[in-house]
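Section 5.1 Outputs to date
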Amino acid sequence: MSKIKILQELNRYKIGTCAEMVYRNALFYPDQECLIFGDERMTFSAFNNRVNRLVNALMAMGLKKGDVIGVLSWNSAKYLEVSGAAMKGGFILSPFNARLNEKELRYLVNYSQAKVLFVGEEHMDMARTLRDMGLCAEKYISMDVNDTEMISYDELLNSNFSESEPNVSIEEDDPLLIIYTSGTTGLPRGALYNHRRFIEDTKTYVMMTGIQPEDKYVMIMPLFHIGGTKVMWSYFYVGGSIVLLPTFDSEATLKAIEKEKATDIHIVPTHLSSFFALPNFKKYDLTSMKRMWYAASPMPLEMLKQGLDLWGPVFIQGYGSTETGPNACCLRNEEHKVTGLSEEEQKRLMSCGRPNLGVHVRIVNNTGEDIDPYQVGEIIISGNTMIGFWQKPEDTAERVKDGFVYTGDMGYYDDKGYIYIVDRKNDMIITGGENVFPREVEEVLYGHPAVREAAVIGIPDDYWVERVHAVVVCKDGIEVTDKELVAFCRERLAKYKAPKTVEFMESLPKNPAGKILKRELREKYRQK
């Protein structure tokens, strides 16, 4: 790299494209580590070269700019290379949830119109089944295992394809990423992002957190999740390093932070809960941590306070969704410093912060009109949001109106602009004609010393129509009865809000990002 004219080369790709981001790092930080995955350590220069070879190989196979490439795998270094190939080759990346069943994956692969499917080691059997079922994908590339019926990733990159920059013109408005909604209602839909909105959202994260090239991020979120892939690329954007784990494991994560002296991590509340559940979690040295970014679902206040007592104000809350960037709002770590403040000022820990730079947030009523502070309405967001739903113009028109994405989240804002998430619109319980927002009840349950995790749902009831029902996971070695928890809630809530029934489980169902799946809990009662 030292022999080339760096500044001239920097102009090869347009500002505002992800191709420019990948190449810029290779030019400026060629020998700096960008990726640690197990025993594998890779520099920015090596990453760029491997991405170029992959792009040139795919183009030799007949792929062209605008074609969709799918990935079915857990996190890996090769997963990131495929992502980089989409960025520099003008392809559209379509990551698929690695936990879906055959029927769900068949639908998504065909819906995406993927021409190629990259397959991880654990998903080879699934890929063979899908191929036999008949998919639109024309080629299958095995990322880890040799298979005579699939193209070998390693053999592809070890072939004589050039490491030179691909001859592809990348524009800011070129489509880049289809990332899928969780499918809480109906079939999943693909939120489409172009290079411009991907980069703008990435820059928003950088500005709000202040990350630097010397920072090192532990990646435990799945790459097929919006929060995983978008937050991770923010560190790549500034020239930081990524410590990539295949999936989340609480002890492996703490070991990785200690070993690599990591500065950053993105967690969800269930991850923090699992850290605290380890009997020896305090033995790990986490003093290198600057930021613990939490998102995907609200953090229970008692759990957050425990974390603040242990590690200080390293926490940053982010709020957004698959369709909104996802970096819409932020409660900065400085705003977590509430010790010594009045009780009223400490309430901001319950908020998700204020709108990020470049983002507008409104809270509206059922007719789309803005409502006053402290009134509960639907949160709508404009800024670095999705372009729309892939191949679904009618669904797009329903969710995106006048440039604002309607999130389905209910909340309110205070007179300083802090936004408070009350609950999902579809999660609200109507019991005896009264509205109950489950999160309020869950916050009370988390305040009980025996409760490790809690989810509150509405279930059918002959008298109340819907009954407030709590599903609870207890901490190891601590017992509590359902009557005690109901009484605990009634002391702290209006009687109609308190759970009428409590169910104990060993664990709660979660998606790959660690978010509790209330729809699965509700489904059990719908079937009765």
